[in-house]
Amino acid sequence: MKLTDHFTSFLRDTVNLNPTRLTQLEANVEALKDVIRASDWSPKVHTFEEQGSWAHETIIKPVEGRAFDADLLVVLKPVEGWTAKEYISTLGKVFANHGTYNDKVKCYSHCVTIEYAGERKVDIAPCVRDRNDVTGHEVCNSDDDAFERSEPEKYTDWLRDRNRWTGNNGLKKVTRLFKYLRDIKGNFTCPSVLLTTLLGMQISSLDSLTEDPFSDVPTALKTIAGRLDNWLQLRPTKPDVRNPVLASESFTDMWTDSQYENFRDKINVYRGWIDQAYDEEDRDESIGKWRRVFGDEFAPDVVLDKSGMVLEGARMLARAFAGSAASSLLDTRDDLVSFVRRYGIRVLPKGFDKRDYKRQPKWRSSSLDHFAVQATATLHAREGAPKIRDVTSGNALPKGHSLRFEVRKTDGGTLSANEYEVHWRITNTDQEAIDAKCLRGGFWNADDGTARWEALKFRGVHMAEAFVLRRTGYRLVAQSEPFYVVIE
Questions:
Q1: What is the DSSP string of 127-144?
Q2: 353 in a domain, yes or no?
Q3: How far apart are CA 96 and CA 99, in angstroms?
């Protein structure tokens, strides 16, 4: 499902840099400009220009408390005889000698950076215009003491054209989503200028002739992710990605060969997840699948337990199982536990196991060596105590005890902890778990080899599922059906 309203909220509340931070950034930048203007720095300033994500309007809110960057270009008249290194070092001294910024300034290869207590930082890059016989802009590389051609304005125009062709700022929004995906996953490398270029390359002027591929944010995301994945899959080795407005500048060296291979592999995985979430017709399942892509911040306010609907479905099935003569005797005060205890798990409505707060598996499946498994359980007075009895899925159990779950191959074979790694997805339902803010739905490692202990705390019908990964290649090779835990 598209879930366009949730995407709107997700971008506004989680991904986009919030207006307060933008206002603070703009105030900081104006103050930095004033410092440069009031200094005795030798170069004459032609103008200041926003650069990078700030200029492209693809800057995002930092994740996990990290600082966000903003790039400011200082376009200068060249100073006779100055080297590239002198522009960086002398600009650094301007701020190092200033009382407000002397403890905030650092010099890097291409810029002077002002850091604001881990919240944000501004990279100020000197850019010389029309130096000697060179017509155009050159940035300064302090490490190599060299001038490098640059076309920031043309690049921004190139990107804006492609964003316009998608309509509704589709490219900008998708670029922010990809940056967020990169930052929250943390498992692939792609600097922002390279990622932005790759995404922009997937758009052409022909896209301006139709709105269908970019009619809304999720559709634009599916379209661009699919095109990028197709482009990457046609290139098994690292391609030469050039600045689209400056052919002499290559972005390829921003990757190692292994980083490119990993990026190609991850985009292929995420493209598949995006397609699955988009194509999923069940709303709850779709939310869960979008959360597999973007994490729990997607649709965070959706309470995902539909107890009333589930109970009514169970009541209808119970009437059918009881027969016409007895259906009138059903107590309207019965809850789901009462129905399951009386009629077994067959009374659970279709789709009961599809809770949209369930985390989706993050591992890639292996179809070549997949096998069937089943979860089993034993009842204990407490964790580590002797077994009281074996438990069948759907058995009614008392609070205050513990279950020990194990997973076995259905053909009778055992699972070696040296060969396999087991994760358990534990999902609670019903009002007591909701009140305790303990619906869970995530993954937990096995406690003992492949087994896991769980305490029986909340009245309701809960679920435990085993996910088996082969340690070699770290691929998902088996998944059990839900084991239903009924707590009275």
A1: EEES-TT--SEEEEETTT
A2: no
A3: 8
Contact 264, 201 (CB under 8 A): no
> Buried b / exposed e across 81-104, counting CB within 10 Å, b at 16+?
ebebbbbbebbbebbbeeeebeeb
- Cβ proximity of 116 and 21 under 8 Å: no
Q: What is the 8-class DSSP label of residue 41?
A: -
Predicted local confidence at residue 449, as pLDDT: 84
**Which residue from 305, 296, 334, 306 is spatially nearest to 318, judged by alpha carbons?**
334
Residue among 82, 79, 29 nearest 51 (CA): 29
Taking a C-beta distance cutoff of 8 angstroms, is the pair 316, 385 a contact?
A: no
Q: What is the pLDDT of residue 170?
A: 96
**Token pair listed for 153:** 């304005």
Residue 66 covered by a domain: yes
Residues whose CB is less than 8 angstroms from the CB of residue 160 and which lie 6 or more positions away in sequence, other chains included: none
CA nearest to 407, candidates 369, 441, 365, 449 = 449
pLDDT of residue 320: 54
* Burial letters 310-333, b for 16+ CB under 10 A, else e: bbebbbebbeeeeeeeeeeeeeee
Q: Are residues 113 and 184 in the same domain?
A: no
Q: What is the CATH number of the domain that holds 397?
A: 2.60.40.10
117 and 20 within one domain:
yes
Question: Residues 182, 127: one domain?
Answer: no
Which range marks the domain in which residue 227 is found? 155-294
Residue 146 and residue 203 in one domain: no
Instruction: Decide if 304 contacts 287 (C-beta within 8 A).
Output: yes
Main-chain dihedrals φ then ψ at residue 64, nearest 5 degrees: 55, 35
Q: Are residues 378 and 267 in the same domain?
A: no
**pLDDT tens digits for range 230-260:** 999 999 999 999 999 999 999 999 999 999 9
- How many CB atoms within 10 Å of residue 46? 14
Boundary residue ending a domain (122, 150, 178):
150
The pTM of this model reads 0.70
Examine the domain organization and report whether 41 and 133 are in the same domain.
yes
Contacts of 37 (CB under 8 A, 6+ apart): 45
Residue 227 three-state SS? helix
The per-residue pLDDT for 315 is 54
Q: Which of 225, 260, 294 is the last residue of a domain?
A: 294
190 in any annotated domain: yes
One domain for residues 121 and 145: yes
The amino acid sitting at 346 is: R
Enclosing H/E stretch for 29: helix 19-38
CB 258 within 8 A of CB 212: no
Evaluate whether 54 touches 76 at the Cβ level (below 8 Å): no
CATH of the domain at 138: 3.30.460.90
Instruction: Count the domains in the chain.
Output: 3
pLDDT at 286: 87
Positions of the chain with pLDDT under 50: 304-311, 313-314, 324-333
